[in-house]
Fold this protein.
Amino acid sequence: MISPLILFEDESSPHLEPLTLTRPVHDLRVGLLTIREAWERALGARRSTSPLRSSLRGLFSAPRKVTGDALWLNARYLPTPPLIEAIHGLTGGHLRCGDDLLAVRSPEADSAAWLASGRPEARGRGREVSGDMTRRLVYPWDIVRLAPASIEADASAVCQDAGRGPGCHPTAIVDRPERLFMHPTAIVEPGAVLVTEEGPIVIDENARVMAGAIVRGPVAVGKHAMVRMGARIYGGTSIGPWCKVGGEVAASVFHSYSNKAHEGYVGNSVIGQWVNLGADTTASNLKMTYGTVRMLDWPTGVEVDTGEQFVGAIIADHCKTGINTMLNTGTVCGVSSIILGAGFPARAIASFKWVQPWAITDYRLDKALLDMERMMARRGIPLSPAYRRMMTAIYQMARGA
């Protein structure tokens, strides 16, 4: 067991915005688990800690006092067997991958100073880790690319013994039960079809796959999440805790408490927390020219070529779309943006904006906070003072204040 474990954000982490405006990098969900959860499981760490940006304090666990030596890990990197082996062999010094500082062993005195500054320094003898040993996030759309392998790696996190769980109805069709991982409390209703030929299907605690849904792995369905009746869920999709997902979804990652409950297509997209996609919302993931997709790099405001032919939308927390909304290939939506009306909106939508065919207006902070409070109250979660402070900081940033 490795302890304590400290996950840090480096100078490249801002490129994961707008998803990380409302969470640390380690709280990004890639497969069934968040990056933090995946590392804790991979290394047998009982609990990790992390320096926090000022806007996130009070929302995530505050950095704990570190006693003894510590292992610092770059939060943009995901566990892989070769990287885990390299970390276990790191008794001192640091690991690098190209220009990235990947991992550092630190004595107690250094860790205390580094927690205060927010990131470690390369100390001791360095060792290079080749890129083919690693999986890392550079931009938000990398989450989609890395999700299938993460779901495979996370499959046994639900249960060690694969197969139909006690909640799997006898009329549900499962082609290869040895690749189905069901928590004992998970439910698969009559007539659901689970196809695991191309990857496992993971159904976590109190999750439900409703009657007539078709799920093709690799797919993860998180705690208390629901796959709605008649849904068509394709491989590479991760549905986070307390989400409700219906219609047609392919290769997309939903964080938590988000809803796409009705018809409409979402492909190769990343959906944040507390997002609601109205009925028949469609997010295109392929250009009519079949070329690679360009997307906005949030902190620089510059479009970059993703190098990918299939990229849908990046939708930050608390975004909402009206019925029949159409999102163009490569759309990025900032925090708490509202998209309504016919036609395609702009492919880059700032935080706290109301987007309508005839105008783009500001979403007043007081109104936005009231709407957040109402939405979160439906799930029994209060809008805390710390959450208000975070959203106020994002609002002021969006307005250049």
About this structure: The mean pLDDT is 93. The helical segments are 35-43, 81-88, 108-117, 142-154, 365-377, 385-398. The radius of gyration is 21 Å. DSSP finds six helices and 37 strands in the chain.
